[in-house]
Specification:
6-stranded parallel β-sheet, globular, alpha/beta, binds farnesyl diphosphate
Length: 225
């Protein structure tokens, strides 16, 4: 039976969820942050799941209206301030991925603090993808290793990426069927699951069902059985 050791999620649909309720888009992000906590705690309690990587802010999200970007930054700050306790209580290690240099000094400090304070935790690894784009990640990795005199190998590139772990199960909420520049290298053999559920409505019950379906898939990785 397959084990979903590394689950990655594109958390889409916050804005539409709020608009459907006649509320401002940012309300969807606020409720979405609560779902992040619930899903993270669920994964931490599951012995099979080792990593949960969540697409929280992409390199393209800066194109959104200034007020929405500012709100997302504040929400992230608030989330990390309040979640340190949750991480420690559930033995969760926080390992952000993405180019963090784009964030304010205070947000960078919070991200670094939470990372350091949870570095000893050996349960679930929760990675928030922050100012993350797979193209940017791959380019930064190549630039890191390009001075090497030998030919670059797959292992070298993989080790130079922010996220060095292949994804087993990639889920996208919100009804669209695309990867939106998320973990393109690591998802080469991931099983892809798309759901129409908008992220604020996504539940641990739906995640459990998806994981159950995933365990039944015969994964061949290009081979024959
Ligand atoms: C996509 O919804 C979601 C995002 C761009 C950001 C994800 C953020 C959260 C889940 C909340 C904050 C998370 C943390 C960890 C604090 P969308 O706005 O693109 O929705 P739409 O497709 O309906 O417009």
């Amino acid at each position: 039976m397959n084990r979903a050791k590394h689950i990655a999620i594109i958390m889409d649909g916050n804005g539409r969820w709020a608009e459907l309720k006649g509320q401002k888009r940012v309300k969807g992000h606020e409720v979405g942050a609560k779902v992040v906590r619930a899903i993270t705690e669920f994964c931490a309690a599951d012995n099979d799941i080792e990593r949960l990587t969540l697409y929280a802010f992409s390199t393209e999200n800066w194109k959104r209206p200034r007020l929405e970007v500012e709100y997302l930054m504040k929400l992230l700050q608030k989330y990390l301030d309040s979640e340190l306790e949750t991480y420690l209580k559930n033995n969760i290690r926080f390992e952000p991925i993405g180019d963090l240099r784009a964030f304010s000094t205070s947000l960078q400090k919070t991200i670094k603090d939470v990372k350091e304070k949870t570095a000893h935790c050996d349960g679930l690894v929760q990675s928030l993808a922050l100012n993350y784009g797979a193209h940017d990640e791959i380019l930064r990795a190549i630039n890191r290793i390009k001075k090497c005199e030998d030919d670059i190998t797959q292992a070298m590139l993989s080790n130079a990426l922010d996220c060095k772990h292949d994804v087993d199960l990639l889920i996208r909420t919100g009804g669209d069927h695309r990867l939106s520049n998320f973990l393109l290298w690591q998802a080469a053999y991931a099983e892809l699951f798309f759901t129409d559920t908008l992220w604020p409505d996504f539940t641990t019950t739906e995640l459990e069902r998806i994981i159950k379906d995933f365990t039944k898939i015969e994964r061949k990785f290009g081979g024959l059985k």
